[in-house]
């Protein structure tokens, strides 16, 4: 399959490296309205078809899918252009600016019969995946409690300055991944309540969020996120887990250590992600998951399957983000049915 990528910024580099490793797909065209970034990406990855205007790239065609790696304001227009061009779509998180846009984007691609996947990669991190598979395989019986936790003091603003500027920060940018991991582990959510704080005075949005989720299947989970946590070791960008089940417990601790206890026995596994040749610590965890989700997309298209984080699936993660902000703003718990 041939693909085109739009947005050659901070994160797209990982996606371009990931595509170079994926079996069954190659990137044949790239687009960025910033000519310098476009030229740098084209030179680094040997891609000659370069466009400053996405409409021109779609008009020229010659690719089966588009990978949208821009920030959220451009997602809806670009997904709609891709739908009009009749190609499959991958779109970065956060998927949309609001629920109406997200629904319109899903409908636009659905009408073409093509596939839409949101690049929601954290559930593809190999350590998180090991926990998901153990849980789904019944390793601790039926789960009834979970904590999904991301706490760090890492400076994400130097690489992504726009994160300091938005009215919303951690839930929309990072919490979205952690909420998605909670969904992957425990299923869909009926109700959520959230509190938020801003600790860093140099940013506009919230950098701490604590959320309590009631999952339809009976699990209660706590999803807590912070970019204001000063502690050692610094665990960026690890998601830590504590899960209780009817037969045992599972923990994913700092340093990618997975512990499963059951019937008085303990199994401890090192589930550290590999450092791919193009990756660098501490991002290697995220970088591997980029390659994995992109391979998943290609494999799903080849097999006629729906990707795990299809647009329709990711709408339910995005709804959690909207519901968390509503809960924090109004000081009440929010039923997902309200959205
Ligand atoms: P960035 O600002 O560094 O890069 C975005 C690029 O898109 C810029 O070069 C910009 O010129 C270009 N662009 C924007 N609108 C365009 C348009 N209409 N046509 C052509 N080019 C356009 O942003 P980034 O940090 O690379 O983030 C991009 C997206 O990736 C964001 O949505 C962010 O949340 C997401 N992200 C995801 C992960 C992850 O693990 N999944 C990690 C970091 C960032
Ligand atoms: O943008 C964010 C993401 O998706 O993963 C980590 C990040 O780069 C900073 O929070």
UniProtKB/TrEMBL annotation:
- What GO annotations for molecular function exist for this entry? nucleotide binding
**Residue intervals passing through the bilayer:** none
Task: Outline the extent of the GFO/IDH/MocA-like oxidoreductase domain.
Answer: 128-251
Q: Which domain of life is it from?
A: Bacteria
**InterPro entries, from UniProt?**
Gfo/Idh/MocA-like_OxRdtase_N, Gfo/Idh/MocA_oxidoreduct, GFO_IDH_MocA-like_dom, NAD(P)-bd_dom_sf
Query: Gene3D superfamilies, alphabetically?
Result: Dihydrodipicolinate Reductase, domain 2 (3.30.360.10), NAD(P)-binding Rossmann-like Domain (3.40.50.720)
Pfam families named in the record? GFO_IDH_MocA, GFO_IDH_MocA_C3
Q: Residue ranges of the Gfo/Idh/MocA-like oxidoreductase N-terminal domain? A: 3-118
Designated name of the protein: Putative oxidoreductase protein
């Amino acid at each position: 399959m041939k693909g085109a990528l739009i947005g050659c910024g901070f994160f797209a580099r990982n996606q371009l490296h990931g595509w170079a490793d994926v079996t069954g797909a190659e990137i044949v065209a790239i687009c960025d309205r910033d000519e310098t970034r476009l030229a740098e990406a084209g030179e680094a990855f040997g891609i000659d078809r370069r466009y400053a205007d996405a409409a021109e790239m779609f008009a020229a065609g010659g690719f089966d899918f588009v990978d949208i790696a821009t920030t959220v304001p451009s997602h809806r227009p670009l997904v709609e252009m891709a739908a009009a061009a009749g190609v499959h779509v991958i779109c970065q998180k956060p998927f949309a600016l609001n629920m109406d846009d997200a629904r319109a984007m899903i409908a636009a691609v659905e009408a073409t019969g093509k596939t839409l996947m949101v690049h929601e990669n954290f559930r593809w991190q190999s350590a998180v995946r090991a926990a998901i598979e153990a849980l789904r395989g019944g390793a601790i019986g039926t789960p009834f409690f979970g904590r999904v936790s991301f706490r760090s003091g890492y400076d994400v603003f130097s690489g992504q300055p726009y994160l300091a500027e938005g009215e919303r920060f951690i839930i929309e940018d990072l919490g979205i991944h952690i909420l998605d991991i909670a969904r992957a582990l425990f299923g869909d959510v009926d109700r959520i309540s959230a509190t938020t704080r801003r600790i860093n005075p140099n940013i506009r949005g919230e950098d701490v969020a604590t959320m309590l989720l009631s999952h339809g299947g009976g699990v209660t989970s706590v999803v807590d996120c912070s970019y204001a946590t000063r502690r050692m070791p610094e665990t960026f960008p690890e998601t830590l887990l504590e899960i209780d089940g009817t037969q045992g417990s599972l923990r994913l601790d700092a340093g990618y250590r997975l512990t499963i206890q059951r019937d008085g026995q303990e199994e401890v596994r090192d589930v550290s992600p590999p450092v791919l040749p193009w990756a660098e610590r501490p991002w290697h965890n995220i970088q591997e998951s980029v390659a994995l989700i992109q391979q998943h997309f290609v494999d799903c298209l080849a097999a006629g399957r729906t990707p795990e984080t299809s647009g329709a699936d990711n709408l339910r993660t995005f709804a959690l983000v909207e519901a968390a902000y509503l809960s924090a703003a109004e000081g009440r718990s929010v039923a997902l049915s309200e959205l």
